[in-house]
Each structure stands twice: as C-alpha cells, then as structure tokens.
Design brief:
8-stranded antiparallel sheet; alpha+beta; 712 residues; 10-stranded antiparallel sheet; 33% strand; 13 helices; globular
Length: 712
C-alpha cells in the first residue's frame, strides 16, 4: 500500500513574512486545498512505477541544439515528455493527458500514429512593445497519438522548441468519438530534474493575484499561480507559464512529489473546460536561461500567440497619464458622491490643466458614473456605464480636455457583475468613442470565485473564478467590442496575461499583481524586494499597470518602502505602454527636479535589455526610445544597499551621450533617509562603465541623450 503524506492546510500568502520576516526568505508550506490533489498524487506514484520501461517515440531540438525534447510511451501506453539542456536533464519524465467528466480519461493505451517536424524563422514588428522587432525562431514537432483500444480517440501534441525555451499544447481534431470534451483536469506535469528555489504566489486565495511572493525550495511550493520562476541549484533559471489562453481555464500548478509540479485548472461548471472538437489548448510554456535577465529578454510567450487580428491599431497611442486615483486610496477623496467625491467637474479640470502643462496625454477619473454610492463591492448591478453623476460634466470635460490636447481615460468598474457589464459595454464604448476617450481601465473588484454570471436576463446568477473559462471568453468579448470603437483596454483584477496582446493589440496593460495601492494602505506595504521579484516573475507574462511615481513617498499613515530615485527607476524596470504619474499634482510641485525624469521617459521602446539582476535582489534594465535616439536605464535593489558596475556597451558606437543621472543621494535609505536624492550629468560613450550606488530600498534612473540633442 502506498503511504500518502497528509494534506497540509494552506496559509494566506498576504500574511507570509508577517512580523518583520521577509516573505522571500520565509519557508512557507502551502498544501493543496482540493481533495483531488490527493488522488492525483496516487495516480502520479502509479505512473512512476509504470514508466520504468518507457521508450522514446519522437524528439525535437532547439535551433541551436542546446535544448532537446523527447516524447515517451511506456508499456501501458502512457505518454510523457522530458527536456534536456546541453545534454543534462532539466525536466524529467512528465506525464501528459486528461481526466474527462463525460468520458474515459486520456491516460493510457496510447500509440504513436504519425509525426512530422518543421523549422520556422521570421521577424515580426510589434505595433508597440518592449522591442519593435521580434524574432520568432523555433523547430516544431507534431506527434499524433491514438488510443489502441475501443474508440481510437486521437489528439496531437505540438512542441515548439526555441533557443530560450519550449512551448507545447494539445490539439484535438474533429472526430466522431470525441465531439464534446468536458475536461475535469489536465494531467500535464513539469518534473524539474534538479533541486531548485521557487518564487511564487498562491492560487485560489481570496485576493486573486495580489500577494507578496514566497521564496521557498521547490519541494515546498503549494498550489501556485503562473508564472512561477525557478532557479536550479546549478544556476539555470526557469519560468513556467502559459500562452494564448483562449476559451479555456487558467492553469495553476500543484506541488507533487520531489520537484514535480502538476497542472490544476481553474474550476468551472459543469467542468473546468467544456469544448467541442476541433480545438487547441493554450500553450504550456517553459522559458529557460542561464541568467535571470535572459528570462526578461525572452519573447517566447508573445511568439506562441497568433498574429494581430485587429489590423491597423495606430489609433492607440502609448502614453503617460495622471488622474483621480491616488487620492482615493489615501482616503482624501471618495469614489462615492458627497463632500469627498473626487470625480467632480472642478477637480477633473484641475488634473486636465496639470496634464496639459506637463505633457501628459491622459487623465483617469474613477468614480465618475452612477452606482458607487452604498456597498458597490457587493452590488455591481447598480453601475450605469454611460450615466455620469450629477457633479460630473462628462461631455463638457471631454471637450475641455480636447481643447487642451488631453484625452480622458475611461473607467468601468464592474464589481464582478460581469453579465450586467456585457449588456451595457457596447453602448458605453460608443459613447466614449464619440467623446474622444480611446482607452478604458476596467475593474473586477470582488473576492476570488465571486464573479457573477447570468446567462439570461431573467436567469439565476452563478459564480465564477477570475481565471475560469467563462472569464477567458469574457475578456475577449470586451476586447472585440472595444476594438470596434477603436478603444484600448487596461484590465485590473484581470485574468492573467498570456501574450494575447499580440493577437489583440488593444489589450494594452493590466494589473494582476500587488501594485502601488498597497503602499497606501497595505499591511504590510510592498517591501523593497517586491519589484525586483516582479521583474522576474509577473512581468515575464506582459505589461503591468503598476502606477509608479509617488514622489511624496507617503501612503495612508505609512511611508513607502522606497527612496525617491527608486520611484523614477520603476518607469523603466516595470514595463507598460501606458504609465501613470500616480502622485497628487501638489506633490510633484515639491520635487520638480525628480519630476523631470517622469516627464521625459517614454513608454514605447525600440529595444530592451536586462544588464544584470538576481530574483528578489536587484535588477538593471535599459530601453531605447522607439521614437528617438535616447536610451533609458532603471536600476532597483531590495533592502540591501549595493554597488553595481554597468558597462555601457548598449550605446551606439562613435557617439557621445550626456547621461542625465537621477540617483540616490549620500546616505539614502528607505527607512531612515528616503528623500536623499541627487541629479547630475556627465558625458559617456559605449566603452565606459558606470558605477551605480543604490541605497537600501533604492534605485537609479538615467537618461542617455546623444550630445547633439541633450538638454541645456
């Protein structure tokens, strides 16, 4: 009899590291919260026992030959894959298959029916992004497997191997024996072959993705969201995620035995996924690099998505914005109407004037429409997405903004009444388009698992998870409706990013992590290690609307765990094609020297490189302006002050640059001397090396301008 370990009770990731202990260093044991995990563990042990006589039936290597993927079948016809890197095992035998609610599981009695390979190499251009041109270079294996007994159901495993990782997915052709599939669980595994450290946040917790990251041995991961980032003991960096999440449930990862991680799909009804053949699953992705920065430079997830379906999207303008937001989180103003209402005509005109004066394209206003009064968190059905409050002149403000060369940024908070929103969104987008509002921040504030779905106007209300198959489809419905009106979407409390911005370039950014607002009221606020973790975890999925630039360094009765220069560096280290100058206008007036960098820094890039970094410790990113010749550098550290040597070999040859440096001043420290700050200039060339000193919780931002066009 197999001796199964007892299930462990999960703990709230937001409390990890409480009482002054860093969650990165805390050993957090988080057991699976579903009884199915125990059964899956038993299946895995049986699988291991049966896999001893597995035979390789298909294989494919990366273009440079460093990565090799093999598909195996054992004596029972059970299918698995493995990955070797430079001849060494990286991922051991990891099973593939499905458990169905409406049929036998896809698990055994499989045989290879056919296989083919192809090479692919292209370079494509992003309409906006971290880099303008992206090389998409891989070798592909397509292997068809068929059941050798009874119904002879079949599916393909498609594997694409890049120099920086792999993607694989299942493709189900149309077949009489498999019309509708109700997928109860996907049996995909990732058996990391060597001991590793993991950076991860919990899945199926109430606060969605908004948790501090745990740093634990891989063997102590509980049920984790993706991306999850690993560093093996011999220094290989691995990020596991997914690409092209369309009409499918989001994938989480449950701890198995040893270094094994198992797919755990987000729940839905009547099953986690219901699809009719033919269809494809999302790609399961494994990014691989020698150094942490190699993960940042990878375009693997984007490359596994389909090309742009929307055509010309030049109507979207990457830009920076200000607005009525931070004051709400400071509780100086309110979303609800009354004496503290932030979304008033007079207040919005003030922000429009500020944006026009300092060169910001957008002004976001939250709380402008009816429905915010009362307990909106519990009743999003009261929102009207076209009707402004009595003290907010939407038409007049849109015209006033236009006269100043500014655009209002729309806001649609659903409070998770998703079906209610869908019934109004087309008319709401049409109204915004008429008023020149070309981007909208959407919101889905509610506890996880509390999305409200109503398929008929008079029907019952069902509950869904934020990353369910239903929500996967909902977000695409929003994107398509918005695109008809040339509107871009920035989703908060979203489904995870899986690179669909390539296919739908109007999906410009999203939240999906613990952002700046936690520095206003979070307990605890974001620690200095948070952003150096985000760079190598959440940010690998895609852009994040983190809302940097709080130069007051002050939340609601608590200080930010940041120096002044660090807030500037975040504009470079945390990518988004829209960036907010999140602080109050009056606070920028107190720090005009630092504010200059926020005014200058672009948000659309020709090239991006990660010069150095270690997960949770520090990172230095440089990016080249897509519309100019300047380069920008951002560098951040954790709670440890450090000195970094940065070669400037990314600069163009035979040119002299003026480095406009915004750095931590002498003695800068996020606890004791947050505002120590210095601004200076010096001439540099690509043959030079800069020495960056970062104070504890600090950072540095630099603008490199060719000398002929530098500021006086």
């Amino acid at each position: 009899m197999l001796d199964l370990p007892p299930l462990k009770k999960g703990v709230d990731g937001s409390e990890a590291g409480g009482g002054g202990i860093s969650p990165r260093r805390a050993t957090v044991r988080r057991g699976a919260t579903f009884a199915a995990t125990r059964a899956m563990l038993l299946l895995s042990m049986l699988w291991l026992a049966a896999s001893a006589h597995a035979a390789t039936v298909a294989e494919v290597a990366s273009p440079d030959g460093a990565l090799k993927v093999e598909l195996d079948l054992n004596g029972e016809g059970r299918l698995a894959y493995r990955v070797a890197r430079k001849g060494e095992p990286l991922i051991g035998d990891s099973r593939l298959g499905f458990i169905l609610r409406n049929g036998r599981q896809f698990l055994r009695s499989l045989a290879l029916d056919s296989q083919s390979t192809r090479r692919f190499d292209e370079t494509w251009e992003q309409p906006w992004g971290e880099r303008r041109f992206v090389r998409n270079h891989y070798n592909e294996l397509r292997a068809r497997f068929v059941e050798s007994d009874r119904d002879r159901r079949r599916f393909d495993v498609v594997v694409r191997v890049f120099d920086d990782g792999i993607g694989f997915r299942y493709e189900f052709p149309k077949q009489a024996a498999l019309d509708e599939m109700q997928i109860e669980e996907e049996l995909t595994e990732f058996a990391i072959a060597k001991p590793a450290t993991a950076w991860w946040i919990p899945a199926f917790e109430w606060n969605r993705e908004e948790y501090l990251y745990n740093r634990t041995p891989l063997a102590e991961v509980g049920v984790a969201q993706t991306p999850i980032t690993l560093r093996t003991d011999d220094g290989v960096h691995v990020s596991i995620h997914e690409a092209a999440l369309v009409d499918y449930a989001g994938m989480n990862l449950a701890k198995g035995d040893g270094g094994r991680l198992r797919a755990m799909l987000t729940p839905g009804s009547p099953a986690k996924v219901v699809r009719r053949t033919p269809f494809s699953t999302p790609w399961r992705t494994i990014q691989i690099a020698d150094r942490a920065g190699g993960l940042v430079e990878s375009s693997l997830i984007l490359n596994l998505n389909e090309p742009n379906k929307l055509g010309d999207v030049s109507w979207f303008k990457p830009s920076k914005y200000v607005g009525v937001w931070w004051s709400l989180h400071l509780d100086q103003e309110s979303w609800a109407t009354g004496p503290k209402h932030g979304a008033t005509t007079a207040n919005t005109r003030r922000y429009i004037d500020f944006a026009a004066k300092y060169g910001f394209r957008g002004v976001l206003v939250e709380g402008w429409n009816t429905g915010w009064d009362g307990d909106w968190f519990a009743n999003g059905w009261q929102f009207d997405f076209a009707k402004p409050t009595a003290d907010y002149d939407l038409e007049g403000l849109a015209a006033y903004a236009k006269s100043k060369g500014v655009h209002l940024v729309g806001h649609h908070e659903t409070a998770c009444a998703v079906s209610h929103y869908e019934r109004q969104m087309d008319a709401a987008f049409a109204q915004f388009a008429r008023l020149g509002i070309d981007s909208v921040k959407t919101g889905y504030v509610c506890d996880a698992g509390q999305i409200e779905r109503q398929d008929r106007a008079d029907g019952p209300v069902a509950r869904e998870w934020h990353e369910s198959q239903f929500m996967s489809n909902h977000h695409l419905r929003v994107l398509e409706a918005a695109a008809k009106h040339r509107i871009a979407i920035n989703a908060h409390e979203p489904i995870k990013d899986t690179g669909l911005r390539r296919t739908y370039p109007n999906w410009i950014s999203r939240e999906g992590a613990r952002g700046q607002e936690f520095n206003a009221w979070g307990n605890p606020p974001n620690p200095p290690e948070h952003e150096p973790i985000l760079i190598f975890t959440r940010m690998l999925a895609g852009p994040m609307d983190f809302t940097p630039g709080v130069l007051s360094l002050q939340g609601r009765g608590q200080p930010l765990q940041s120096t002044l220069a660090r807030q500037l560096a975040l504009y470079v280290t945390l990518y988004s094609p829209i960036q907010m100058a999140a602080d109050l206008p009056e606070n920028y007036a107190k720090h005009m020297d630092a504010f200059q960098f926020i005014r200058d820094v672009p948000v659309d890039w020709q090239d991006t490189r990660a010069l150095n970094g270690e997960i949770g410790d520090y990172a230095t990113i440089v990016r080249k302006d897509r519309n100019g010749e300047a380069w920008y550098l951002g560098s951040v550290t954790d709670e440890t002050a450090r000195t970094l040597e940065v070669p400037l070999s990314f600069l163009d040859a035979n040119r002299t640059y003026v480095a406009q440096i915004y750095r931590d001043g002498d003695g800068a420290d996020y606890k004791t001397n947050r505002f120590a700050f210095a601004r200076e200039t010096r001439e540099v060339k690509r043959t030079d090396t800069l020495t960056l000193w970062l104070g504890a919780g600090g950072g540095q931002a630099i603008r490199f301008v060719p000398k002929r066009s530098s500021r006086d």
